[in-house]
Structures are given as structure tokens and as C-alpha cells.
Specification:
The protein is an alpha+beta fold and 194 residues long. It folds into two domains: 30 residues; 159 residues, 3-Layer(aba) Sandwich (Glutaredoxin). Helix content is 37%, strand content 15%. The strands form two sheets. A four-stranded mixed beta sheet has the order 4-3-5-6, sandwiched between helices.
Amino acid sequence: MNTLSRLLSAASLCATVLLTAPAAQAADAPVQCPATLQHTVPRLQDEKPQSLCQYSGKVVLVVNTASFCGFTGQYKGLEELYARYKDKGLVVLGFPSNDFSQESGSNQQIAEFCENTFGVKFPMFAKSSVKGAEASPLFRQLAELSGTAPRWNFHKYLLGRDGKLVDNYSSLTGPDNKGLVRAIEKQLAAAAPR
């Protein structure tokens, strides 16, 4: 075998090893989407479908919201929580619902209210049902995992970076609640899944 043949053979072998090496592929692979985020829902502002898988690897706080509720002021605290921790990996996801007869507006009206009144920048999704037989697949799943469906507006579900349910919190638990903040900080300190 001449020198050129040996070089070509060695190059071919190296290329095969590089292309089939699982470690190289795993390092560049995206975070796998957990079952809790395998949902596509319309965005509030324009109703364009959004895959919740885009939040894989983040700590997620899912909240059902309403514009005309005694707890509506929690929008301010949720936005502050999001602004404070978003760079560390927290995302707040808002889901307006009229299940408790306190969200009668259109998606566009809700979007304008949230932005103009509370400066909401965290992701919001189109109005949907969050309890009972009409609940969206996401909220059905969260209710099954936690054993608790929202009993009122601003119920919260906390998911860890791995997408697993950490806990759920009633409307009475505000975004600045020390227990909720500690739970979020503990999840943010956890390593992102690979």
C-alpha cells in the first residue's frame, strides 16, 4: 500500500469515527422536550401557534390569569418575578381564562390590557379553559400531575428545568411569596438537563 492510499484510508477512518461518535452528537443535541411542555398553543397577541418545547431546560411558572379579578394585581408581581429571574432561566407563562367569568375580552383586548396596565412582557397565550372537561390539554395534564385543578384565577404550577412538576400554588400565594420564591431559586440552581 503506497503512502497516498494509507493517508486516504486513515482519513476515511477518522471521518467515520467523527460522524458516528455519540459524545460529539450528544454535546450539540438540544434539550429533550419534557411531556409537560409537549403542547402547541396560540400566542395571545397574534394567535400564532407556539410550541411550549421552546421553554425546555427552563424553570417554568404556569399561571391562569384574568383581567377583572381581585388577584389581577398579581400581574405586576409576576412581571417583576420574570424580570428578576429570566436571565437565570425562569419563564412565566400566562394563560387567560374566562372559567371564573372574569375574562370576557378578546385576545387582543387582553393583550392590550396586560401590556398597558401592568407592562407584561412574559409570554402570554390565547384565552382558554383551565378546568373541567373543557380544560386545555396542558391544564388537564397539570391537574392530573398535581391532583389540583385551578379553583380560581392566578393558580400557579411550578415546573423544574427537567419539566417535572415541583408544586402548585393557590391564588392566595402571590408572586412575592417567600416559599414560592425559594422554590423557584432552588430550581434555578439545579443543572439544566442534557
